[in-house]
Design goal:
ATP-binding, alpha+beta, binds adenosine-5'-diphosphate, Nucleotidyltransferase, domain 5, ATPase_NBD, nucleotide-binding, seven-stranded mixed β-sheet, 546 residues, 20 helices, single chain, globular, kinase, binds 5-O-phosphono-D-xylulose
């Protein structure tokens, strides 16, 4: 590595549900600075709860895109306040919460292309930059009608799975675009371009609308995951003239351009600093984890997700198969559960006064198996299974005596309530993963990331329910690391002289930095027996709710 390369840095962003986070890595891929902006507390004027606004109709959730723009102004200033030297940034990439869509106005694109470095981003890319100011995000589940219409138009849900890797899901971008086309036809017609949250992030740095990468693009019910191109059948089933609004999908290994002059003048980025295609937060987390195929990756962010690498695309009738974010001829499996951290937070509030330490003490004061008390908390309509409601059962495998008033009656103590929640969530995740064919054996290891992965008592329950050791990464969250690692790797590939075979992504990253893993919990010896039985009972409970 020459002296110039030694001074190079890589910048990664994660625009997830509740926060915008940034991380700066040096040429050895070590963290030198990081910053974050929490939407609820740092930008209270947008009145989000958990990073989202509930919409006027059932199952609707949205965000005002200008909140994300404002967050970018703040996070960059916070990096500068830490004396992060942005003049050394050789490449940027990012990850975004999946499925959310932004609808650029003509004026917005012009503003993006002509940013004045003396002004904040949010004073230039304001409400008028978007034709839809209540932009739908992944939590929105209001498009059942559009899902049915799209699947019917292409020949049924199995054809949708075969083509796009998922049957139509309400939060996926295609059905969301169709709803906007149907309900706000003028806005759709006025939308010059449509971005995902990830490609929107890239667009801010590029000073132009950036292409959608095909890994995050696999979360739209629009992309043919084998051809890695938009499926004409799906586009036609969604909305007219959609291809021109989406632009050409690109590889996540693509450089989409250099940073715009705005960032050069305002933050001293080098003029040749490259913008690498941004991708979805779950693909990015997988990229940040650097693990082998016997590992199951668990992200405990706002949603709980399970991720796994896949050589070939399996036809999953539930769950999602996405194009892999780094091994671009491979795939990844993704299971997403809506009722994750926000439900844990709510129970923490009611049972432990919002104090995680107390929550953990209560959780640990109860035995594995919780005296046979179990609960399922689907506060919002769950994704798999599609079910809503709360159910508590006692040890007799019968509905709790007072269960007639579902979701109202509680167990006799906060500690039983808390263990029932966490065990119930993890049994649910394990049952769905098994249904999708994930094999849990002696070799299985788990790597956890996301906000709740700091909680060792929750991780211990995961180790016990999944009967596998649980690890965490010590540096930072995987999605954020994945964004910065990809920035470094794609630049490395781009700079190789012609004819040189590049290292694989994983070999390249590991040649610069070891994967800093920490084993946090091992399963107890009696776990397999206890939870095998509870898994069967959980299935009965889920069936009762569905
Ligand atoms: N000590 C903790 N124990 C359990 N959950 C926690 C703890 N600290 C934070 N969290 C959870 O982490 C969630 C945020 O995770 P994060 O990965 O930052 O979200 P996202 O990436 O979706 O914006 C919060 O909803 C919060 O409930
Ligand atoms: O909908 C999905 C994945 O399909 C969600 O996982 C979003 O990508 C949001 O991620 P987090 O903010 O919860 O990390």
């Amino acid at each position: 590595m020459g002296p110039q390369q030694l001074k190079r840095a890589f910048l990664g962003f994660d625009l997830s549900t509740q926060k915008l986070k940034a991380i700066l890595l040096n040429s050895c891929l070590e963290v030198v600075a990081s910053a974050e902006v929490k939407f609820d507390s740092d930008l209270p004027e947008f009145r989000t709860v958990g990073g989202a606004n509930p919409g006027p109709n059932k199952n609707e959730f949205f965000v005002q895109p200008v909140m994300w723009v404002k967050a970018m102004d703040i996070v960059l200033d916070r990096l500068v306040m830490q004396e992060a030297d942005l003049s050394t940034v050789a490449a940027i990439s990012g990850s975004g919460q999946q499925h959310g869509s932004l609808y650029w106005s003509k004026h917005g694109i012009a503003a993006l292309e002509n940013l004045d470095p003396d002004k904040f981003l949010h004073s230039q890319i304001d409400d008028s930059a978007f034709v839809v100011n209540r932009t739908p995000i992944w939590m929105d589940a209001s498009t059942t009608k559009q899902c049915v219409e799209m699947e019917t138009a292409i020949g049924g849900h199995l054809d949708m799975v075969e083509l796009t890797g998922s049957k139509c899901y309400e939060r996926f971008t295609g059905p969301q675009i169709r709803k906007i086309y149907q309900q706000r036809t003028h806005a759709y017609e006025d939308a010059q371009r449509i971005s995902l949250v990830s490609s929107f992030l890239a667009s801010l740095f590029l000073g132009a609308v950036a292409p959608i990468d095909f890994s995050d693009g696999s979360g739209m019910n629009l992309l043919d995951i084998r051809q890695k191109n938009w499926s004409k059948a799906c586009l036609n089933a969604c909305a007219p003239d959609l291809e021109e609004r989406l632009g050409q999908a690109v590889s996540p290994n693509a450089i989409v351009g250099s940073v715009s002059e705005y960032f050069v003048k305002r933050f001293s980025f080098p003029a040749d600093c490259k913008v690498v295609a941004c991708t979805g937060d779950n693909p990015s987390a997988l990229a940040g984890m650097l693990v082998d195929s016997n590992w199951l990756s668990i992200s405990l962010g706002t949603s709980d997700t399970l991720m796994m690498s896949m050589k070939e695309p399996l036809n999953w009738e539930e769950g999602h198969v996405l194009c892999h974010p780094t091994e671009t001829d491979e795939y990844m499996g993704l299971l997403c559960f809506r009722n994750g951290s926000l439900v844990r937070e709510e129970v923490n509030k009611t049972e432990a006064g919002g104090d995680w330490q107390k929550f953990n003490e209560l959780l640990e004061s109860t035995p594995r198996g919780n005296f046979g008390n179990m609960a399922v908390h689907f506060n919002e309509m769950e994704i798999i299974p599609k079910a809503k409601g709360t159910l508590r059962w006692n040890k007799d495998s019968m509905p709790h005596p007072a269960d007639a008033a579902k979701g109202v009656i509680k167990f006799s103590s906060p500690e039983i309530e808390i263990r029932a929640l966490i065990e119930g969530q993890m049994l649910h995740h394990r049952a769905v993963a098994e249904d999708m064919g994930f094999h849990f054996g002696n070799e299985t290891q788990i790597l956890a990331t996301g906000g709740a992965s700091v909680n060792k008592s929750i991780l211990q329950t995961i180790a016990d329910v999944f009967n596998a050791p649980v690890h965490i990464q010590t540096e930072s969250e995987a999605a954020l690391m994945g964004a910065a690692f990809r920035a470094a790797y794609v630049l490395y590939r781009n700079e190789l002289s012609e004819g040189t075979t590049p290292l694989s992504y994983k070999d390249y990253v590991l040649s610069l930095t070891p994967n800093k893993l920490q084993l946090v919990c091992e399963p107890h010896k009696d776990s397999a027996d206890i939870y095998a039985h509870m898994l069967l009972r959980y299935r009965d409970m889920a069936r009762t709710l569905a």
